[in-house]
Structure formats: C-alpha cells, structure tokens
Amino acid sequence: MSSVNLRTVYAFAREMHSKNANIGPIQYGTAGFRTLHDRLEYVMYRMGLLATLRSRSFSGSAIGVMITASHNPESDNGVKLIDPMGEMLEKSWEDIATDLVNVSDDDLEAEVTKIVKCQEIDMNANANVYIGWDTRYHSPVLSRAVMNGVIALKGNMKEYGIVTTPMLHYFVYSHNVKGAYGVPTEAGYINKLVTAFKQLRGDNYENGNYKNHLLFDGANGVGSLKMLAFNRKLEGALQCVVCNSNGKINYECGADFVKTNQKPPTGLPIAPANTRCVSVDGDADRVVYFFIDEDGKFHLLDGDRIATLIASYLMKLVSECGVKLNLGIVQTAYANGASTDYIKNELNVNVACTPTGVKHLHHKAIEYDIGVYFEANGHGTVVFNQQTKDLISKTLNSDDSTDDQKQASNDLILAIDIINETVGDAISDMLLVETILHSKGWDLKDWLATYDDLPNLQQKVKVKDRNVFETTDAKRVCVKPEGMQDQINMLVKKYKRGRAFVRPSGTEDVVRVYAEAADAEDVKCLAAEISMLVYDMANGVGERPVIPQQKL
Ligand code: 16G
Ligand code: MG
Predict the structure, then answer these.
(1) Are 216 and 243 in contact (CB under 8 A)?
(2) Average per-residue pLDDT in the chain?
(3) Which atom of ligand 1 is nearest to the CA of 165?
(4) CA of 506 relative to ligand 1 center, distance in Å
(5) Tens digit of pLDDT for each residue in 77-95?
(6) Would the CB of 505 count as within 6 Å of ligand 1?
(7) Ligand 1 in reach of 174 Cβ (< 6 A)
(8) Is position 70 annotated as part of the catalytic site?
(9) What is the pLDDT of residues 497-525, one digit of tens each?
(10) Nearest alpha carbon to residue 75 among 44, 41, 127, 37
(11) Which candidate in 55, 57, 61, 70 is catalytic?
(12) Mutual angle of helices 165-176 and 186-201, in 10-degree steps
C-alpha cells in the first residue's frame, strides 16, 4: 500500500493515544463526537487519521477538523469534520467515523486498511487537513492528538488555532475553490464581511428607531474574542460592546442558555430598557437577540424571527431588482407555529420542515434559488445558487437595468458577501440582522411586532432507553412505542392551538418534549402531560413529571 506505513498508525495509537478497553462505544452524532474532554484523546487521534483519508479521497482537497463542544459545559469537548465544500461530513462517512473510533487499538491498523480499500483511496495522493479549536482549556492538548493522526498518515496540515466553527468552514471552502469565495485567512474573512457591511451601512450609522449600539454576550467563548477583532475593523460602524469574554464557557450565558431558559444571561452591564442585546454560543455558530422592556419583561427574538426578517429583506431586494427567484424558508418542528403561519400567510413564501440538525436544513435549502434556513435555537444561514448570483450580477451590469434595479442588485451582492453560506455563523448573521434593522429603521420592538409567538415549552425526560422512541415526518410523528402518537393527539386536542411532539435527543441521553398552545398556563400543562406519558411509556428514570397545581 504505497509509501504510507500503517504500522505507524498502530504504534502512535498504542504509545500515545491509546483507547481504554473499558470505554463503551460512542457515535458520530448530530454534530460529531461530543463527551467529557478526558475521554476524547483517542477519538481526536482517529479523527486526524480519518480527515487525512477523506482528504486523499478528494485528491488533496482540504478537510476541516473543528475541536469544540459548542454550547455544552466547559468539561465537555468534541470534534466535527468539515467536507470540501464547507459542508458537514457526509452521512456515509459518519458511519465510517463511528466504526473507526470504536475499534480497539489492536484492530486500528486493519480498520484503516479496510477504509482505504473500500473507498479506493490512493495513498500516494496529497492530503490537507485544516485544524481549529475553541477556547476550552483542553482543546490545545486534543488538537495535538488530531495532528498526530495526520502525521501518522503523512498528511499536511494547517493549524488555525482558536477560531469559531463557521470560520473554519469558511477557510476550508475558500481554499478548495481557490479563493473564489474569499481569502482563506482570518484577516480575509473579517475583511470580506466588514467591507460589505460598511458599504451597505453608508455614512449614517443610525436610522429611525435603529440606534448604533448593542450588547454582545460572547458566552465566554471564541465568539467574544473574534468580535473584538471585528470591532477593530468596524471602527465604530457598529458600536458593539463585548461582554462575557473571559469566564467559564457557556456558564449562565450564551445563546443556548438564553433560548432554553427564556431569560437574559448573567454578566451584562446594567443598561437602559429596550437595549438591543445579542447572545452567541460557545463556538459562535448560533445567535439570538433579546431585550428587556420598560416593565422589566424579557423578550426573545430567536432563529424563527431571524429567518423571517432576512427573508422579507431579501424578497424586497429581489423584487426591486425585477428578477424572478424562488425563495424558500426551511425550519424544523421546533419552529414556533406563529412563525410558520406568518411565513405562509403574510410573507407568502414557501416553507419546508426538516428533521433537527443543521445539515438536514442545509440540504433542503439548496433546492431553492435562495434558501433561508434557521433552527429556532438560532443556528442558520442563507444559501444562493450560482444561477441566482449570475442573474443578480447581470442585472447590476446590464445597460437595460434602471438605477433602482442596479441599486437593489448592488445591495443584494453586498448582502451575499456578509453571509457565510457554508454554515450558520453567529457574527455574520448578526451583521446581516443589524444591516436589515438599520435599513428598516427598526428597534427590537418593531421587529417583535411582526407576529406574536405562541407560548411554548421544552422539557427533557430521562428514560431507561431513549431509542424506544422512533419518529417520522421530520420528527413530528412518533411511530414507536405503538399507540404513543394517538395519546399525544388526544392530549393536544384539549388545548387551543395545541401542538406537541417528542423525539430522542441526538446529543444527550434524554427524550425531548416540545409543546405549544395559545395560553401560557395551558402550555405548562400540555408539556407536563406529554412528559408524564413519555415517562410512563418508557420506564422513566428519577422523578415522575407532575402537572402544575392550578390545573388539577
Ligand atoms: C446539535 C446540532 C443542532 C441541533 C442540536 C439538537 C449542528 C451543528 N448542531 O447541536 O443543529 O439543533 O444538535 O440537539 O448540527 P438534540 O438532538 O439534543 O435536541
Ligand atoms: Mg454551536
């Protein structure tokens, strides 16, 4: 098998990154491998091997390895692989990754040989692996293990050090398309986004109710460091005050905390009522907005809101350009029912629903000329196909276009430059939202007034085996255990505008329950009733959920 000696793979594994024989199997989940940091060294080493093989299978296109546990607590870490076009690892290779991680050290060499054979990999081909990590203190050690995996298979690597997950996606893609998307460096990335942002903003940084000031909750993660770097380039075009930049990652702060608890993070300075605030997660691929009004009430503007705001802005520009394009919004079952109604009835836009997990949304979104996809948790972006980009450029450069059409197409091209099309990107999404609010002259109250969210709740139920639950129809219908869906339907029917579903989590050992209804008290009861059902149908562990007192 050519110049690469696979004995090294085994020797490195045994001497440096050995797998404890007692460790149980783990799975490449919704967003890669994720668990306690001290159980991950052998996983990282093997992902270094796998990324090298994957790169060779593409004749040397760069493959990314991102070391992060995203919004999880500080003690966790994880790893996600990035495919050549900046997308998440293809499904068939997720299974290969799972198998590679679960073999013993002694079987590792044979498993690598098997992959090379089955995938017909030319071991003389070039291999390039791009490595990045978040701010967790154990990330540098784990990155060494990834690098040793690359070295064992004689690949080349580039360390990007501490970067956001979406930055690494951008670097991989920009490199592989030979700079056509942007310069694959941190400076190149910041420059691309900031240049477009400043041009769209013009010289007036304020407009109507839009004020040039916001608080940025960086989740004590990499997002806060990078936002400081953005600030240096923005030079006041956006007055963004970076908070939560050096405490425990995701601890009582960040987008996941804010969305799940429906309350503000700790660590923000006292600010006047209605101050615009934004929270990102630990690796800065999710973003949500929020504010506290003059009565002290907390208001959240989540991924559903961001999707509708972006879609309405892009539709307006497309129509001003005078071109016909098929724009669609992609959501998951977690999208608030009110947002789906608003998209269908007010925006008159196509809306699709896919299973949870960004890759599912991304794949659906690329079916549209312009696909806007967001999970309610704030993870999402916009994708444009090549014909769309060509059509917009043609409008800009055509002598037949009016000045208004040229202006709109110019704005669209700049908006596309702000967007990181490879994956959800908190900072890029935020710059786009700021651009839109600025152009509309809106504060967060104006944005909130577009529609009223239905009260909703998410709960977790611990059961003996979460895999007894099986779902279909984008996770909205439970097909196992038998009879479960009929009982959910009966409970949901009792409540005005009731909707609920259950699904096993892809990242935690729990079953998730989602409920919404017209009334906030009703939603608590519906969620509790469904949680009780889950508990009873599947041997719940710990305390049985109870129905709130007032409804008994
Ligand atoms: C991961 C996914 C996120 C999804 C979440 C669901 C990526 C990059 N991240 O964080 O999209 O919403 O898992 O978690 O795909 P759950 O299965 O535990 O509910
Ligand atoms: Mg994340």
Answers:
(1) yes
(2) 95
(3) 8
(4) 7
(5) 999 999 999 999 999 999 9
(6) yes
(7) no
(8) yes
(9) 999 999 999 887 899 999 999 999 999 99
(10) 37
(11) 70
(12) 100
Write the DSSP symbol of residue 380. Answer: E
Cα separation, 46 vs 41, whole angstroms = 9
Type of residue at 535: Y
Q: Is the CB of 362 under 6 A from ligand 1?
A: no
* CATH architecture, range 188-300: 3-Layer(aba) Sandwich (3.40)
Binding-site residue positions? 70, 281, 283, 285, 375-377, 503-507, 512
Ligand 1 atom closest to residue 71's alpha carbon, by position in its atom list:
10
Give residue 183 CA to ligand 1 midpoint distance, Å. Answer: 29
Taking the C-alpha atoms of residue 38 and residue 389, their distance in angstroms, rounded to an integer, is: 46
Q: Which fold has domain 456-539?
A: TATA-Binding Protein (3.30.310)
Q: Which residues lie closer than 8 Å to 218 by C-beta, 6 or more apart?
A: 224, 225, 227, 242, 243, 244, 245, 254, 280, 284
- Residue 122 identity: D
**Residue ranges of the binding site for substrate:** 375-377, 503-507, 512
Closest CA to 266 of 285, 275, 276, 279: 279
The answer to whether the 6-162 and 456-539 domains have the same CATH topology is no
CATH tag for 6-162 (out of 3.40.1390.10, 3.10.20.440, 3.40.120.10, 3.40.50.720): 3.40.120.10
143 lines ligand 1 (CB under 6 A): no
Take residue 326 and report the two structure tokens written for it.
């098929």
Query: Whole-angstrom Cα distance, residue 296 to residue 308?
Result: 26
| Residues with Cβ within 8 Å of residue 482, at least 6 apart in sequence | none
Q: CB neighbours of 31 closer than 8 A, spacing ≥ 6?
A: 70, 78, 80, 88, 357, 358, 507
- The answer, yes or no, to whether any atom of ligand 1 lies below 6 A from the CB of 377, is yes
Give the number of other Cβ atoms within 10 Å of residue 509's Cβ: 12
Interstrand relation of 214-217 and 277-280 (parallel, antiparallel or unpaired): parallel
What's the 3-state SS for 112-160?
Answer: HHHHHHHCCCCCCCCCEEEEEECCCCCHHHHHHHHHHHHHHCCCEEEEE
30 Cβ below 6 A of ligand 1: yes
Distance of CA 426 to the CA centre of its chain: 8
pLDDT tens-digit map of 413-428: 999 999 999 999 999 9
- For ligand 1, the distance from its centroid to the CA atom of residue 192, given in whole angstroms, is 28
Q: Which atom of ligand 1 is nearest to the CA of 334?
A: 12
- Cα-only R_g, the chain: 24
Q: Which residues are annotated as a binding site for Mg(2+)?
A: 70, 281, 283, 285
User: Please, which residues have CB within 8 angstroms of residue 486's CB and are 6 or more apart in sequence?
Assistant: none
pLDDT digits (tens, 9 = 90+) for 24-57: 899 998 889 999 999 999 999 999 999 999 999 9
The helix/strand/coil state of 162 is strand
What are the residue ranges spanned by the domains of the chain? 6-162, 188-300, 303-428+441-448, 456-539
SS3 call for 313: helix
CB count within 10 Å of CB 73 equals 13
